[in-house]
Amino acid sequence: MRNENVRLPSLDLLRGFEAAARLLSFTRAGGELHLTQSAVSRQMQELEGQLGVKLFERRHRALALTDAGQQFYPAAAQVLATMRAATDRLRAQSGRNALSVTTTASFAALWLIPRLAGFTKAHPGVDVRISADTRVQDLERDGLDVAIRHGPPQLAGEGAVRLFGERVFPVCSPRLLKDAKRPLKEPADLRHHVLLQYDDPDARHPWLHWRTWLEVERLADLKPAGRLSFSGYEQISAAAIAGHGVALGRSPLMKGSLASGELVAPFKRTADPARGYFAVVSRNAAGRAEVDDFVAWLREEAKR
Fold it and tell me: Of 137 and 101, which is predicted with more confidence?
């Protein structure tokens, strides 16, 4: 007989666990949930206390799931997906349409969110929920409507809508160009400057590496004044704007900062890694008016 008095974890704890288990990082989970690293850590301690088992192995600068954590993760993810879907249905019944969108944190922060007010203003009856995630989420399983994905065309999938391609080129604060003691007139001058780079120890994103760009410029042996590494591309953008060094800019993510003058491109040459951004619609969401409107809005914004 089922015991109705068994205490179930709160949704907040499940959300924290799902994010930490998916990202294997309390810091990154906190960033996604707008919490501090310590707050997520306390949540997981509370959840482990309620369940009576350890869910994570806390290693030096690393996090791993225990056997219990691996067993618990799919159930927690499914509960959250079911609750999101049920919430969306209820909102639809109340006369408001819900639209869930997944994309990377960098694309959300640097391109999508700064423009999103234009869509919500034109469609006041649509509630948009953004899920910024480095993991490629399963739209049907996770109850999501639209994905904006970055990659080569052959991996975009059938029915994907191409928004734009991508170019890679150095960018920096205009303040760096005014430093006569550290010129920045040609690529070889990068030896005078700190290079802001993406932290990618497994080399999964070679098109974002300074090494790749320098090899194309025949400067593979160049030794910069220093290097700063970041786990997220939006952090690299902020560091470049603050004048901490030179970053590899990505179009269209840097378009707004270049247009505003916060960043400049000191050299004319660019590299095209043959990747692009694509909108993918869930099979379950296909044909819904708000989804079609959102994809049409994305295509128009991509032309600007």
Answer: 101
- Cα distance between residue 282 and residue 288, in whole Å: 11
Per DSSP, which regions of 44-96 are E strands?
Answer: 56-59, 62-65
Question: Given a cut of 90, is residue 59 above it in pLDDT?
Answer: no
Cis peptide bond upstream of 9, omega within 30: no
Q: Please, are residues 132 and 109 in contact by the beta-carbon 8 Å criterion?
A: yes
* pLDDT the model gives residue 113: 92
Longest dimension (CA), the chain: 79
CB atoms within 10 A of CB 45: 12
pLDDT band at 96 (very low <50, low <70, confident <90, very high): low
- pLDDT tens digit sequence for 182-240: 999 999 999 999 999 988 766 677 767 888 888 888 998 999 999 999 888 889 999 99
CB atoms inside a 10 Å sphere around CB 35: 19
Residue 172 burial (C-beta neighbours within 10 Å; 0-12, 13-18, 19+) = buried
* Residue 146 · residue 291 · CB < 8 Å: yes
DSSP string, 16-49: HHHHHHHHT-HHHHHHHHT--HHHHHHHHHHHHH
Q: Is the pLDDT of residue 4 over 60?
A: no
- The DSSP bridge pattern shows strands 246-251 and 167-171 to be antiparallel
The sign one gets for the Cα dihedral 143, 148, 152, 153 is positive
**Which amino acid appears at position 213 of this protein?**
W
Report yes or no: 248 and 210 within 8 Å, Cβ to Cβ.
yes
Indicate the SS3 state at residue 67: helix
Q: In DSSP terms, which residues pair with 26 in a beta bridge? A: none
Cβ neighbour number for residue 179 with a 10 Å cutoff: 12
